[in-house]
Specification:
- 39% of the residues lie in helices and 21% in strands.
- It is α+β, with helices and mostly antiparallel strands and 121 residues long.
- The longest helix has 23 residues, at 98-120.
- It is globular.
- The two termini are 13 Å apart.
Length: 121
């Protein structure tokens, strides 16, 4: 099984008073697709445009990589290994806030694939 696509999708309910709310009207889905038809979904309640930038790139160098580029072609069956890979490849960008939020969404989607694969077996 290989990862063929990683998407960050901004979900937002438009409301003229959105600034009065606590952020629950603004969210980002992480969708990881595999060549076997399994799709993993993660969720990030953060600043969606920044999460999308972390996923879609472009990469700068080997310690400031976009997450999509890192994951395409990888076997998602070992989420712990992929966590280490994306963690190490983003250390120049940061270890707090947006970067960790994006990695959390990726991690959720990878574990979702793992659970679905286990269920199919």
């Amino acid at each position: 099984m290989k990862i063929i696509d990683v998407q960050a999708i901004h979900l937002r309910i438009e409301d003229p008073n959105i600034g009065l709310f606590d952020g629950s009207y603004d969210d980002c889905l992480i969708v990881i697709e595999t060549d076997t038809g399994l799709t993993g979904i993660g969720e990030v309640e953060s600043y969606s445009p920044a999460i999308m930038a972390m996923v879609d790139g472009p990469s700068s160098h080997n310690h400031a990589m976009c997450l999509r580029e890192l994951l395409i072609g990888e076997d998602p069956s070992d989420p712990k290994r992929l966590w280490r890979k994306v963690y190490e490849a983003t250390d120049y960008v940061g270890r707090r806030g947006i970067v960790m939020h994006a990695l959390g969404g990726i991690d959720l989607a990878l574990w979702d694939i793992q659970d679905k694969e286990d269920t199919r077996s």
